[in-house]
Amino acid sequence: MIRLSEAGKVKTVIVKDMSRMGRDYLKVGYYTESFFAERDIRYIAINDGVDSDKGDNEFTPFRNLFNDFYARDTSKKIRAVMRAKGNAGEHLCTNPPYGYMKSPDNKKVWIVDEEAAAVVKRVFDLCIAGKGPMQIAKMLTADKVLTVKAYYAKRDGKPMPDNLYRWDFKTIAGILERPEYTGCTVNFKTYSKSHKLKKRLQNAPENQRIFLNTQPAIIEEQVFERVQELRANKRRPTKTRRQGLFSGLLYCADCGEKLYFCTTNNFAPKQEHYVCSNYKSNTGTCSAHFIREETLKLFVRQRIFDVTAMFFDDIQNFQNMVYQQRFTETEKAVKRQKKELEQARKRIAELDRIFKRIYEDDINGTISHERFLKLSAEYEAEQKELTEFVKVEQAAVDTYEQDRTDFDSFAAVIRKYVGIRELTPTIVNEFVKKIIVHAPDKSTGHRRQRIEIVWNFIGELEQDEDKQTIERQRKSRTA
After folding, report:
1. Can you give the pTM of this predicted structure?
2. CA–CA distance, 176 with 119 (Å, rounded to integer)
3. Beta strands 432-437 and 250-252: pairing type?
């Protein structure tokens, strides 16, 4: 209507009442009092008795304001309903994410859509294998997997879109970032500043509500978390389109920066290597920390064999070793934290009782109102500080408790890859969280280089120095 009016094709605008024109009193006032008048367009609101040809209606601005109030009040009520539903753990989105469907028996319940869930699992598996969203999208397109829109159209019997198989990398990234696939519900992820603004803004994590086990999980929580770690350390292929097996996992022991993969079309596989990103051809702030990929493959594979052998030789002893190395010192700190948490919670409850007593004393006149205000301010500040302390310390304790259950996840990875003959990106990403590369030591006539592996779920395992060191004669450097 506005475009037609601007083009000079409108002579009269007729609406049922002023609210049908709009409920934003500023915009409605602009169009009815300025926009239409400038273009000699007659404006009529039948039920409200408004006709621009009969002159101004003094009550019209108030009607616009009341209409705005109505929209604002309706928005508040809807927000209150959505807030109550969200806090109760109900799904706030109209449609379940791709991979789920509404239960025929209860529309509030999500069940797994097996056909779509298989695609979701494949997307996560490809990401674990080192593929990025763009690569995954190209693979699904090449395999002629129906896009999300096309799949819904086929499932619901609606007209099919033009591009049935052209996956977009943004769709893949959205799938990889949805925690709902682990079986949880995340409410209040976005918000709007006003009912007049359509734009949704990302909500801070502390303002979101997460409810666990609200629907069957498609992706294991450990797999989801590993994918988020890999996505945080994005690995881009080189100009040769080759990608290092350990790209994104290698870190310099001295400066903490990543080692990047070096290759050219003229390089044989044994020449491909990694160097510290702060080296910059000896013009940076760190040394090269040079290490060949072939050497690293042999080392990591052997370390996986060693850990697997330790696990199967004596599972209980291996578990005890992991707990001792990871939790002996931490356990003492956690015991202290739990004791301090208990004391803090008791003090918070005690402060609530104190507030009640001094309030009654203030009402009864036992203490002066000024004294009450001073005491209440001090107690409120103490309670606020204790509440924040409990929040932080409880998070640390929860992390410790979770870490103690992660041994089973690592054991599952070991059993999954018994007797591997060759390293693949999937195997490396499931076993290894990060690899720390030290500068080589050539002082003894041999090239000795210490490598530390931080395993997924269990962290770093302390072993003999020789088992964490690559040694090579200088004369065989070019071999």
Report:
1. 0.65
2. 12
3. parallel
322-353: per-residue pLDDT in tens?
A: 777 666 556 667 778 888 888 888 988 898 88
3-state secondary structure of 309: helix
| Residue pointed to by tokens 């490809």 | 126
Give dist(CA 165, CA 143) in Å, integer: 8
The secondary structure element, H or E, covering residue 393 is helix 369-416
Confidence of residue 123 (pLDDT cuts 50, 70, 90): very high
Q: Name residue, tokens 């699992």.
A: 121
Residue 302, CA atoms < 13 Å, CB-side half-sphere: 12
- The pLDDT of residue 471 is 67
Residue type, 332: K
CB-count burial class (<10 Å; 0-12, 13-18, 19+) for 395: exposed
Buried b (16+ CB within 10 A) or exposed e, 43-60: bebeebebebeeeebeeb
Crossing angle of the two packed helices 293-313 and 315-364, in degrees rounded to 10: 90
Which pLDDT belongs to residue 200?
85
C-alpha 390/C-alpha 338 separation (Å) is 10
- C-alpha separations of 13 from 27, 48, 50, 62, 273 in Å: 16, 14, 11, 20, 72
pLDDT in tens, 393-428: 887 777 666 666 677 788 888 888 887 888 888 889
Residues 6+ away with beta carbon under 8 Å from 282: 288
pLDDT digits (tens, 9 = 90+) for 256-299: 898 988 888 777 778 889 999 888 777 778 888 899 999 999 99
Report residue 133 as tokens: 């969203």
Q: According to the model, what pLDDT value does residue 335 have?
A: 76
Structure tokens at 258: 């990543």
Cβ(387)–Cβ(86) under 8 Å?
A: no
DSSP per-residue letters across 397-438: HHHHHHHHHHHHHHHHHHHHTTT--S--HHHHHHHEEEEEEP
Termini Cα distance of the chain: 77
Residues 6+ apart with CB under 8 A from 187: 86, 87, 89, 92, 208, 209, 210, 211
- Tokens at 385, concatenated: 């500080």
